[in-house]
Specification:
Elements: E1 3-5, E2 19-22, E3 27-29, E4 38-43, H1 49-64, E5 70-76, H2 88-98, E6 104-106, H3 111-116, E7 120-121, E8 123-127, E9 133-137, H4 153-162, E10 175-178
Parallel strand pairs: 4-5, 5-6
Antiparallel strand pairs: 1-10, 2-3, 2-6, 4-8, 7-10, 8-9
């Protein structure tokens, strides 16, 4: 397992468009979420212990904002060749078992991860209604132990956007397993 931290992106970064299938076979593009003022994009997977550690908190956060114009979307970009947990049918099983409450998309050719500059799982992004990047960082300040969380940075960023404010620019990078890139 290679531990990486999310890379810094320019403040001018705009969410790249995509056209991906969800684990249940529905097609989604960036425009599918145009009615949401805030878009949270999470590059996640099934096998990574860092994702598993925050998964329930991410799902709870989505539920916390479900009455607001906020859309969460998960994307798995891993090559499942050596990680069968990340095969589409296993992603679907976990998505159902955990009742994610948001679409879980499969980036089979990995072009979306590359377009977003995603390098690890989880790699978390928050975009405003113009799909300009407002936050790129960790979920909170204790990935390993939910009882030790004192700052919920992603939640704070979403709240600030909903209030018409800009999130604070001093985000801490997310960290996790490297995205499992296809060997060409």
């Amino acid at each position: 397992m290679v531990l990486l931290k999310s890379e810094t992106l320019p403040a001018s970064f705009i969410a790249p468009d995509f056209n991906l299938q969800s684990v249940e076979g529905k097609g989604y593009s960036l425009a599918s979420f145009s009615s949401s003022r805030v878009l949270v994009v999470a590059f996640i997977c099934n096998h990574c212990p860092y994702v598993k550690a925050i998964e329930d908190r991410l799902i709870a956060l989505q539920r916390e904002f479900s009455a607001h114009p906020v859309q969460f979307v998960g994307i798995c970009s891993n090559d499942p060749t050596d990680y069968p947990d990340d095969l589409p049918h296993n992603l679907l099983k976990r998505w159902k078992a955990k009742d994610y409450g948001f679409p879980y998309l499969i980036d089979e050719d990995q072009t979306v991860a590359k377009a977003y500059g995603a390098v690890c799982t989880p790699d978390l992004y928050v975009f405003n209604e113009k799909r300009q990047l407002q936050y790129h960082g960790r979920l909170d300040d204790s990935w390993q132990d939910p009882c030790k969380v004192t700052r919920r940075e992603l939640a704070d960023a979403v709240r600030q956007l909903l209030a018409g404010q800009s999130p604070l620019p001093d985000s801490q990078p997310s960290m996790g397993c490297s995205i499992k890139w296809r060997q060409r």
